[in-house]
Write a structure and sequence with these properties.
mainly alpha; Annexin V, domain 1; 19 helices; Flagellar motor switch protein FliG; cell projection; flagellum
Length: 354
Amino acid sequence: MTSLSDVDPLERQRALQAFKGSLESQQQRPPSSSDSGQDEIQLQANAIDPNSSAGSSVMKHDRDNAANRSSESIPHTHTALSFLGDTEDEVLVTVIDGEHPQAIALVLASISPAQAARILPQLDTTVQKDALSRIGRLNDVPEEAVQELASHLRNRVQQCLSKQQQRASQSTGQRALSAILAAMPQPKSETNTISHPVTEKRAAVPTNRIADVADSDPANAQVHSLRIAPETKSNSANDRGAAKATSHKPQSTSLSTDSIHQHLLSLTPLDLCQALGKVGTRQAMLTLCGLPNPTAEAALRVLPKAYAKQVRSQMNTLGSLELREIDEAKSAVAAASMKLNAATSTEKPTAMAA
């Protein structure tokens, strides 16, 4: 029996223990009465007769009882590796993957057979065969070696669990960010694109800013007037008056949330990136969170790859956000972009005059 190579070592060990248990039970069975001799003769006769169903059933019953007694008699000893029995299968597979086959065999022998049977198919085929062959040849392992292996595996389990918690926290932040972006109100100009196409263009280029530039340089008033929609020309005087009356206030405060959003969408990736650089880091990341993914990615592609990667990782760690913070950040970026555009517009006439 010990020379059988195709039999699973665990199955072979259980069969040997069952056979040993059956022998011990037969030796410990006391004679009950004077009929015990006749019963023994009858049992021997039934065992010799291959056609006797009674003899085969009795022997099968004895073998089953002996196997049950032997399996129940196996003590569940507590070792330094017993904590692995409480570890999840996925974590345990990750922990023992790459370890020496002898260590894997010791781990499989230290956990329950059911858990070992679940873990074995998830290992490499070569590792499975090597570990099974080593389990059958396991002897008494020094306690120091077991303690060292247990300490090593315990550290790996803790590292694996900490990585899972980090991934879970990052995924939680991403889900929160996605939920916030999904809950944000859609811009009115996007929903009314078909019915009011001119309104969207007018919101993309605020009339107040164009009027201020035209007043500062009368020579370019005709050029700037071409950028204003026809239906807004009649109201240009009123717009200029309102712009002058509120010149002491930031221009972004006179714009609605939808107008600010459309203004940011109308910027080129380079202009948007320059405007983001004029505000704080948190405001810049909040603004990117409040913009559509294509617009935000286009602005990030302007940056160097290493810096863009750093910005993306910081956006994932923002945590819980409020729509009020996102709106305030977008307003600050819009104001910065308007200042940059105003500075650029004033520099061009100066260069032409020079």
